[in-house]
Amino acid sequence: MSEGDGIMPRLYEYQGKKLFRAGGIPVPEGRVATTPQEAQEVAQSIGFPVAIKAQVLAGKRGKAGAIKFAEDADEVYHIASNLLGKSIRGMEITRLLVEKKLNIKKELYLAITADPSSRQPVAIFSAVGGMDIEEMAAQDPGAIIKKKIDILRGFRDYDGLNLVRKAGDLSGAEKLSLAALAAKLYRLYRQYDCKLAEINPLVLTDEGFVAADARVDIDDDAVSRQTGLELEAMEDAGERPPTPLEIAAGKIDAFDHRGSAHFVQLDPGAQYAREMGLVPIGFDCVGTGASLAVMDELVPLGYYPINFCDTSGNPTASKLYRVTKIIFSQPEIQGYVFVSCVSSQQLDNTARGIIKALKELYPATGGKPNIPVVLAFRGAWDDVAQRLFEDHGIAQSPLVKILGREATEKDAAEAFDRLYRAWQGGDKVEG
Amino acid sequence: MAILINETTEVMVQGITGREAQLRVELMRSYGTKVVAGVTPGKGGQEVMGVPVYDTVEEAVERHPNISATCIFVPAKVAKHAALEAIDAGIKVISLHPERVPQQDMLEIIAYSRGKDVTVIGPNTIGVISPGKALIGMIGGNVDFARQCFRPGRIGVLSRSGGNTTTLSYYLTKAGFGQSTAVSVGGDAFIGATWRDLLALFEKDPETDAVAVFGEIGTTTEEDAAEFIKQGGFTKPMVAYIAGRYARPNMRFGHAGAIISRGTGAAQGKIEALKSAGVYVVDHFGDIGEALKTALSRH
Amino acid sequence: MKDNLLQFEVFSGGKVCIDLEKCKGCVSKVCIEACTGTGKPEAFELREGLPALRVDPAALKKGGCVECLACELDCQLYGNKGLTIVLPMPELDHYLEAAATKPVYMR
Fold it and tell me: Which of A329, A348, A361 sits opposite C95 (nearest CB)?
């Protein structure tokens, strides 16, 4: 899942803190443990009380019960045994960060990211940090201070001071200290090609400011030059771990640069579709924009594409063959829709790939599927693509509709709706 | 006239000795684009399909002082250097084709181009076409297909989706509207020329009567354009389709830019922003040609 | 392995296999021209009445075969079904073996 599919390499907290420490940003004393015994050892070496933090990439870990505190070794063992092996939002806990519990006087927020509108790096500061920063930003935007940074000029000391000066009850020394931290965070943001470098909360203790958490998102397009980072851990860093079908699909593009077949399960298991009362279907489009536009037509009619698939860049027929087999292997689908944007890629190849897949999936019927299928070929060699489905006898199936260049996204969705209704109305193939 | 490129534009290709660039040179020349020079460091003195190759952009511009546009077909990791070199040499239009240009490289290119007389299209763009005049990049794919889908006319086209640049133009062509210039602005979160920048060019272009756009979830492109229209920066009729109304928050697609983040960038907000600026927003992409007829008749 | 089998590997991982015994009974020899469809470089030629490679298999494996699948599909329609293309997907096979719910095409 590292093949340019928009999954952002995100570092675990302990990895981010390693970078912080190297960059001169204070972090609590602590180490990673993978067993309850190890957690005890770490706790004993740093002294009690300790914080035990599950290393998963889900947000709001505090609310999910993934951050606990312990006063003694027994408690550490108990908590660590409870956390390890559990899952948070589908991500298994295999590592714990055991650190010295901080004596919190105040929680603040500091981050560097890129501002979408001005297209510049922006430093963001709030004198009120902690778990609910996003809610607070929505309620009280004035409490969030932003300072755009000229990327060619770099971050200057006074940028940091200008960022924090509006925060009311900070002493002069604290402001200087925060400004220096902001400069260090900016350097880290630049050095590691971050999309986001965030300290939330940034904690004021008796010993000064300490980064109690670290969120570092690396630009996946810059990973190749960030060779110093722990890449292995970044591979699996996503919103959720890749599914077996996604892993299988990932192999299609891995060794073959000829066009792409990018497959993601939007709704693995079709739980969302069922909750919404929508019919789960398999889905493939040429182009991301086409996917969105076709989805806009399908959902109001009651159909939910449970996968996203982009087969663009003039992929080989064999890529289409493989990815079509994967799409059809989602057990929940009750139909399949393919639409190309009006594209110059060789749609005859697309057609051959899909035909070979259908013929192998449905050997008894010569490729005629047992669920409704709509294919809209729009673009170069679209006439050949349509004819191939007729030549192979698949277009003649009552469950199949082949459309050409004249079809819009809406036409394709409505054609599918008609097929599905007819199928439900009596033509349904017994399963 | 059109915007950015026309039949007199002299075009350079950076990275011309690469396999992909050569395919594109063939497309551009057969469409009528004047490709006069190529640049690949270390390969100066060679020729690619009759086009002379130089080591640097400066050298290419010395020999061909009328070059005003470049398309960059270099690997993503060196795209920044190629773009900065073109900006330093005074190139006016830069079409940046690589996918996966590092975000901070793009922020540097944007900062470097700011205040200079240069338009950076992309990255991750399929290019620009002024139908019947010239195209740069890979737009249209092959010359026959480009001629089928894009017709000369008076409608400007902007699309955040490469593929749907063609689909949108085809829908317009089908409804009887040709295009003055169609621009694939690039699918990334951080692009050089935004809709706002390009609407300003279409506003000044006497050969553009109206603009049609394809937008999608993520970024603030549509919201910023709506603000620009409200400020009076663009006064011609505009029709739009915004894709992704049923994308769930945090649903991630291949486009780095198509990410809904922190409550901004959702389709509904974009649609409302554009409507409040007087833009005709259609519910179905395929209706955009008909909507344009209405927009033109009422304007 | 049969003696009368013509095989070559393709770039994406997989094989084109031609059972020449079947080709003896084939009238159309459609695979020869199928490869000129949209694909290059026209991998096959007829030699003593049977399909033979006119391109080095190593070159085909390096991407010389563009995997358009036209030879196989045309052979199935108009030929003697002697040409098959095997494109393995071990990860998918493993998934299907382990899957609790069978996909719709197996029902």
Answer: A329
Distance CA B296, CA B282 (A): 14
Q: Do A272 and B187 touch (CB under 8 A)?
A: no
SS3 A307: strand
Cβ separation of A262 and B112 shorter than 8 Å? no
pLDDT tens sequence across B195-236: 999 999 999 999 999 999 999 998 889 999 999 999 999 999
Q: Are A73 and A122 in contact (CB under 8 A)?
A: no
B213 plus B265 within the same structural domain: yes
Instruction: Compute the Cα dihedral for B266, B269, B274, B280 and give only its sign.
Output: positive
Question: Do residues B155 and B117 share a domain?
Answer: no
**CB of B262 within 8 Å of any CB in chain A?**
yes
Q: In CATH, which of 3.40.50.10050, 3.40.50.261, 1.20.120.1730, 3.40.50.2300 is domain A244-424?
A: 3.40.50.261
What's the complex ipTM?
A: 0.95
Distance, CA of A414 to CA of A277 (rounded, Å): 18
Closest to A96 in 3D by CA, of A62, A66, A131, A58 = A66
Q: Which CATH architecture has domain A106-234?
A: 2-Layer Sandwich (3.30)
Q: What pLDDT digit, counting tens, does each position of B82-116 carry?
A: 999 999 999 999 999 999 999 999 999 999 999 99
- What distance in Å separates residue B190's CA from the closest CA in chain A? 7
* Domain shared by B178 and B36, yes or no: no
Q: What is the mean pLDDT of residues C59-86?
A: 94
Q: Are strands C83-86 and C15-19 parallel, antiparallel or unpaired?
A: antiparallel
Q: What pTM was computed for the model?
A: 0.91
Instruction: Give per-residue pLDDT as tens, A148-196.
Output: 999 999 999 899 999 999 877 889 999 999 999 999 999 999 999 999 9
